[in-house]
Amino acid sequence: MQSVLRSVYWICILIGCSLLLINLYGLTQTMRPPVFFSDQLRFGASDISLSLHEYQQAVKRRPEETDEEYAKRLTKVISQGTAHIHWERYDPVKFNQMVPLWENWILHLMGRFSGIAEYERYHFVDPDKSIERGIGICGEVSMLMTTLLEQNGIEARMITVPGHVVVTAEIDGRAKIFDPDFGVVLPFAASELKDNAEVASQLYVDAGYKPHDKAFFLNAYTKPYRIWEGPEHFITTKFYFEKVSYWLIWLVPLCSIAFAWLISLLIKNKKA
Known about the structure:
Blueprint: H1 2-26, H2 52-58, H3 67-81, H4 105-113, H5 117-120, H6 127-133, H7 138-151, E1 156-161, E2 164-171, E3 174-179, E4 184-186, H8 197-206, H9 211-220, E5 226-228, H10 231-234, H11 236-271
Helix pairs in contact: 1-11, 2-3, 3-7, 8-9
C-alpha cells in the first residue's frame, strides 16, 4: 500500500511542479512574433504599423474623446496594430495561432489533440491577449473592438455577413458599422447595408484597398446578416472555456502539489 502511495505522491509532485514551471516560464514570454515580413501579410508593406507598446497605448480612450471619435479612431488603431497574416497558409505554431504551451497549456492541448479547428488556430476573447499576440482576422478583432467599446461605456454588437465580421454601435442616436479588420467606418446601420452596398464597398477602395476587396464587400453586404450581442453570444462555449482555463492552469498544479502533501502526511501516519 505504501509503495502505491509513494508512486502517487511522486506522480503528483512531478505533474504539479512541471506545470508550475511551464506557467512561470510563460510569464517571461510574449506571444507577439518578433518580426513580420510583407510577403506573410495580406496587405503587404502597408500592413501592421504599430509596435506592441504603441498598440497598447493607442487603444486607450483619450479624456477629451467623444464616443464617435473614440470608435472611429479605435477602428483604425486595431487595424494598424494587427498583423493580417495569411491565416491558413502557415503552420499554426509559426505565429502562435495555436496557443503556446507556456501561455496556456490547456488551450495548447486543445489545439493539439481536440481536432477542433477553432483551437488549432485560436481567436482570443481576452482583449489583452489579443493585443499582445498582435495577429488576427475579422472575428478576433471584432470581438476585441466590441469589448473595448463596452469597457468604455459604448454599447456595441457584432455583425456577421458571409465571410466577414464587423462591429455596430449606435452613437448619438445613429447606428454605424465599424470594420476593425480593414480600418473602415461605414455610416450605415445593418438594416441599411443591402441598399447601400455599392457605396459601402466603395469606401474600402477609397481607403486604399483593391478592386477585388470591393467586389467581396459588394457581394457580402447584399447578403443576409446576423447580429450578435457580443463575444459571449458569438462564441459562448469558448468564451467561458478560455476564462476558466486561465484559472485552471494554476489551480491544477497547485491542487496536485497539495494532494501530494496530503499523501505524504498519510504515509507518515502509517509509519507511525
